[in-house]
Design goal:
heterodimer; A: 287 residues; MetI-like fold; B: 288 residues; alpha/beta; Rossmann fold; six-stranded mixed sheet
Chain lengths: 287, 288
């Protein structure tokens, strides 16, 4: 015992795998904040999806023929329901209706978020004035405003789009403000000493530096936008993915319900991918 | 935050009128060179910061002149307020008392007449080298063709023509600093302010850039005020070295460098150079 402890010298790594080697290998897949090769990324990404489908299959098998009413539709049944929806012409119209609401609602929300957020991040006066009201408004549950929206804006698209805006705009503003605040002081000072006006500093320093961060904010909060869509489509409407889910549930048509949930997930993944691409295209200097 | 700083400046501005005249006459002998008129003139400069339970006096009664086309370097240990002084000249920070003038005009904010080069990381990472250099020219509203001509000429001066389309992240630290200096110089400022411009570089690169800066300085005839903690660098590059004391920063000594304008790197081995280096080192560490 005593002899083993004396052989372990300072600087000699005891976790070294073999005699004659020193140091703890960083590893290829498990290096902290390491990077994957493209091939590994694709393989692991596919493995994750396969894993989800496998879990789904297991759950579907386990609940098949269950008497308790616990039902997990099988992937095959879900696929059939999806094709059925498509054949009825509902799938495309629902996707279009919901996407349009998100496009306008979340688009307006991001536009407000960028303008107000950049102002708050750039100017202490704007920050001082707006921080308290926005902090307050952020905690009002947007879904609770649904009846008011109906009362004020009728039953058309306006209340639905407004709900999506209210449900996301405050997060967007505060997160964009954070992005704008992270512009290095030195870049702003350098621009000022080169003769840039306040407006030019905003347009040519704060804005370009914030673009990748703003796209990240858009990407993260988009999920909240879809969440609000579900609430919004509970208002009187005939078309939309959330409407379809609610109706399917009401008729205990769980195959169809799962099919729509699948569509939600796919749309989310695709928009995420698109925004990542946009970020890479718009800010090639940033990673 | 911004509001308080501005109001303080206003109060100081109102109180300045009387005191400044008295100070200016009292310290009129503080000039570096009787013959050349001072381009940059600092009189009775004070900077105080509020700290917990009181006030920190960072700069105390600084008088400083930089003649047109001159090269003056401030040396001092870290925390002596020399960067603060430079920021005040740049207009990024407001003095608590005293006056800073360029050609007789009082400094009230940043402007293209005073180019500032930071220690590092001040290039716009989304702009290529050429676009970085063009920034100040864009602010002046120059046309694309005018900008291109000026940028090309300046990139030639700093030897970065081949790298015009590169992004800062692909450049070495030394190249980045050359771009930063080019960006500040291309708009032909009255005064070039250098805040430890070579502090983050290795010795070899630093010495290369010393040669580069001397060359650029002689070609452009710029008026330079530099801050550094590298004594050798200060002596090698400047006409006059000004030593600042530790907190509060006060001018301890002004030393005219006894070498001509055209210096070779060999001058570093000159006995007078070494003696000066020792003197300044003693001064900096309070041994004299």
């Amino acid at each position: 015992m005593a002899t083993t402890t004396t052989t372990v010298g300072v600087g000699v790594d005891r976790e070294s795998p073999r005699a004659g080697e020193r140091g703890r290998p960083l590893g290829r897949l498990w290096r902290v904040r390491g990077e994957l090769t493209f091939r590994w990324r694709v393989c692991l990404g596919a493995a994750g999806l396969v894993g989800v489908v496998a879990l789904w299959l297991v759950a579907a098998n386990a609940t098949a023929g269950s008497q308790q009413g616990v039902v997990v539709p099988s992937p095959a049944a879900t696929w059939d329901a999806l094709r059925e929806l498509h054949a009825e012409g509902l799938l495309v119209s629902d996707v279009l209706a919901s996407t349009e609401r998100i496009f306008y609602g979340y688009g307006i929300s991001m536009a407000i978020g960028v303008v107000v957020g950049l102002a708050m991040g750039a100017f202490p006066s704007a920050e001082g004035t707006l921080e308290a009201p926005i902090g307050f408004a952020r905690y009002i549950p947007a879904s609770a405003l649904t009846p008011l929206m109906l009362l004020w804006l009728g039953i058309d698209e306006a209340p639905k789009i407004t709900l999506i805006i209210i449900g996301t705009v405050f997060y967007n503003i505060l997160m964009v403000a954070d992005v704008a605040r992270s512009v290095p002081r030195q870049l702003i000072d350098a621009a000022a000493t080169l003769g840039a006006s306040r407006g030019r500093i905003l347009a040519r320093v704060v804005w370009p530096h914030s673009i990748p961060g703003i796209i990240d904010v858009a990407r993260i909060n988009l999920a909240a936008g879809w969440l609000m869509l579900v609430v919004a489509e509970l208002l009187a409407t005939d078309e939309g993915l959330a409407v379809r889910v609610v109706r399917a549930t009401r008729f205990r048509d769980y195959d169809r319900m799962f099919a729509i949930l699948l569509v939600f997930g796919v749309i989310g993944m695709l928009s995420d991918l698109a925004l990542r691409g946009l970020r890479r295209w718009a800010a090639p200097w940033n990673r | 935050m911004g509001g308080t700083v501005e109001s303080v400046t206003l109060m100081v501005g109102a109180a300045r009128g009387v005191g400044a005249v008295a100070r200016a006459s009292a310290s009129s002998d503080a000039g570096t060179d009787g013959s050349a008129p001072a381009k940059l003139r600092i009189r009775g400069l004070e900077k105080r910061y509020p700290v917990k339970g009181g006030e920190l006096l960072a700069l105390d009664g600084i008088d400083l002149d930089v003649p047109a086309g001159g090269f003056v370097t401030l040396v001092g240990t870290s925390g002596c307020g020399k960067s603060t002084l430079l920021n005040i000249v740049a207009g990024l920070d407001a003095p608590s008392a005293g006056d800073v003038t360029v050609d007789g005009d009082r400094i009230v904010g940043p402007g293209p007449d005073r180019g500032l080069v930071f220690q590092a990381y001040s290039l716009f990472p989304w702009r290529t080298v050429a676009e970085n250099v063009a920034f100040g020219l864009e602010c002046q509203g120059l046309s694309r063709t005018q900008r291109r001509a000026r940028v090309e000429a300046m990139l030639g001066v700093v030897g970065l023509t081949e790298f015009a389309e590169w992004l800062p992240r692909d450049l070495s630290g030394g190249m980045c600093q050359r771009v930063a200096i080019a960006r500040a110089l291309v708009i032909e400022p009255d005064v070039l302010l250098l805040d430890e411009p070579f502090g983050a570089l290795d010795l070899q690169t630093r010495q290369n850039l010393h040669e580069f800066l001397r060359l650029v300085w002689q070609r452009t005839g710029a008026t330079v005020l530099m801050v550094t903690h590298d004594i050798g660098e200060a002596i090698y590059l400047s006409d006059q070295v000004v030593v600042l004391s530790d907190r509060p920063g006060r001018v301890v000594e002004r030393i005219d460098v006894p070498f001509g304008r055209s210096r070779e790197p060999d001058v570093r081995r000159d006995a007078r150079f070494l003696a000066l280096e020792h003197d300044l080192d003693d001064l900096l560490h309070g041994r004299r």
